[in-house]
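Input chain follows. Return structure tokens only.
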Amino acid sequence: MRRTLLFVTIAASIIACRTAMRSTIQGPPSPAQLAELWVDPEADRDLFWGLGGSRLAPDPKVAYQVIAVKHGGFSRGLTLQDPQSHEWSAKFPPEAAIGFHQPPIYYLAEWNATGAPEKNPQLPARFREKKPDFHDLTYKGLWSYYANPFVGTRELNGLLVFQVMLGNSDLKEEQNAIYELKAPVEGAATWYAAVDLGESFGRTGKWNPPRGDVQVFEQTPFIKGVDAQGHVRFDYRGLHGDLVDHMTPEDVRWTCERLQRLTDRQWSDAFRAGGYAQPLADRFIRRFKQKIQEGLALSHAGAPGR
């Protein structure tokens, strides 16, 4: 009983603690600085192969050597080496379409590994190469939603709205990465990326929320209303709800307007690249489109549209 009360007390303390968001630069970011987070994507962006194209995809026919096993966190993963000594991170399910940067990531439905905890073939996984042959892309560290150059911008707010739409509960800095490139790509030589969406596609929550569950995703509300201060109230239950409690209808519409530009082919390719069977993908896509229309219906006056 005492242990239960202690747990509840600690949990309440964590939930009650709010960290102020602050910019790490003086004044608003320049267009060049904003490009480090977001660029207006070309209309025909390939959402199956992504920026890296098929050239950088891992080979499903070779045997990968396990270097390390990740046990912590939601998605179990392996660090691997292929026969050409390229190092890969493979994350098992469950686990940028609108202009936010992403390193080359690939999905393998079936593959083999030497020294893996499980017998071959391995479970489907997302593969990300440590040093891909992509403009000398180099990982430089983590970044936080609470402290970065983009705090207060429509672009960062849009990314956070998108996380709400995904149902992502895990907004801690360990899920974000900074990359450097030898020359500007997509408008910038430094990228701020949200690279891990492991707690998505279900319902947000503070402790072990459902994820990767299409029925829960379909049934969970998106927008609950707009408060007297003009802030959108989401059905968001994650630990970092303070990150999304100041969003305006304009922030929501900005995100939904960009998602609305995606073609049916791009939606299908995005889910196909993640290994989703088409009937399941269609259900997720249908719910996404409902959320988009809900966001677009928010009125400029700050009340839900009718």
